[in-house]
Design brief:
Number of helices: 10
Number of strands: 20
Distance between the termini: 36 Å
CATH superfamily of the largest domain: D-Amino Acid Oxidase, subunit A, domain 2
Largest sheet: 9 strands, mixed
Shape: globular
Bound molecules: flavin-adenine dinucleotide
Structural class: alpha/beta
CATH topology of the largest domain: D-Amino Acid Oxidase, Chain A, domain 2
Strand content: 15-25%
Order of helices and strands: EHEEHEHHEHEHEEHEEEEEHEEEEHEEEH
CATH architecture of the largest domain: 2-Layer Sandwich
Amino acid sequence: MKVLVLGAGVIGATTAYHLAEAGHQVVVLDRQSGAGLETSFANGGQISPCHAEPWANPGVLPKVLKWMGREDAPLLFRWNRFDPALWVWGLRFVSNCTTPRTVRNTERTLRIALYSRDCLRDLRQRLALDYDQRTQGILHVYRSAREFDRGCRAALLMNRFGLDRQIQDRDQCVAVEPALAAVRHELAGGILTPGDESGDAHKFTRAMANHAARLGAEFRFDTNVTHLLRDGDRVLGAATDQGQQIMADAVVLALGSWSPLLSRPAGIPLPIVPAKGYSITLTADGPAAPTVSVTDDEHKMVYSRLGDRLRAAGTAEMAGHDPSLNEKRWRLIVEHARALFPGAGDFNHVEPWAGLRPVTPDSVPLIGKTRLRGLWLNTGHGTLGWTMACGSARLLAALLAEKSPDIDPGGLGIERFSGLL
Ligand SMILES: Cc1cc2nc3c(=O)[nH]c(=O)nc-3n(C[C@H](O)[C@H](O)[C@H](O)COP(=O)(O)OP(=O)(O)OC[C@H]3O[C@@H](n4cnc5c(N)ncnc54)[C@H](O)[C@@H]3O)c2cc1C
């Protein structure tokens, strides 16, 4: 079968690999000059099923209201009053804030995230991948006793769904990551997820694109896809800004935050909005720099050691498809990083970056077929695209080949949004 993959981020590149491995003729289109140069470029680096708690949960609405209009808010809505798609997304987000839906969405996220972690390990071994990976687990730390308590309840739920999470007191936190010694007295406690990992998503994406190309996948970069080609309820291929029409038996939409821009004119309105986040990268300096990946839950910040670099990432801003760097927002990341790991490096010399997470209202990705024959989705991975990439790609490849998948795909497809809420 000839399969056209739109997008060469971590999702598209990994999908291309699995499709090529399954023997399909694969063509990948991306507007950038190489793989993984947009949202998959400088993310937080965590392989983190431990982050399976969805954004929409019973505790989030009071927080969002409290943070409204504050430039230093971890989650900031700059609401466009005239965008109906955003309002529908917002309604669906609110409807997912109930306890039963939070439990359901946590299970769905963990199902794909845990599968994906296993798939990543399998690929790492088979392909001898090197992407500055670390396999020492992820440690969540809390300063407020109330938030720690809330975190422990979420951890117990995840234990129930098969993720090993271990509650730690402040001394155990420092034993796991000695670079936290400077803030030991501020900590209420922590939660260690020993099986979680970290690594450089961009290096991984490039490696997967190279392996896909080795298996025969053709990557066409610097190619902007303008629209999908249709005949009635069948998608036939895609058109590019270079005047080409590329026909295929199947088209996989893996355009991250830009997926709805192509799907909507074809009659498939995807519930995905971009949530801008920032990262900084600096040279890590000696024992004061962490080696274990850490999440600071209250500030919604993550830290990953990537070789001799330290990456700190966080914050979310719903402000449309604007990838520009807001200095106030990225300097906030610098201040949080300096406060947690003083002496980890030279915080006056950092590389700031911003990316647009493709977020669905329930934080669960969209994987599988659509009502248009030949159009497949592998998109909407939000805050966990790197975590879920390998499993999503393998699942999509199995579904497309009409093979029985390793995990139940129920609740991961677009059909769950057939009603308004
Ligand atoms: C600050 C931050 C921190 C994060 N930290 C983590 C983390 O620690 N762990 C984790 O799992 N996830 C994390 N994420 C989320 C993760 O990075 C994303 O979910 C993931 O990168 C999405 O991958 P993607 O392939 O779907 O999208 P992208 O990487 O954005 O790929 C989409 C591709 O489509 C191309 N494209 C778009 N439109 C067109 C068009 N019209 N024509 C041609 N090409 C087009 C783009 O060039 C791009 O290459 C983080 C995100 C951010 C912003």
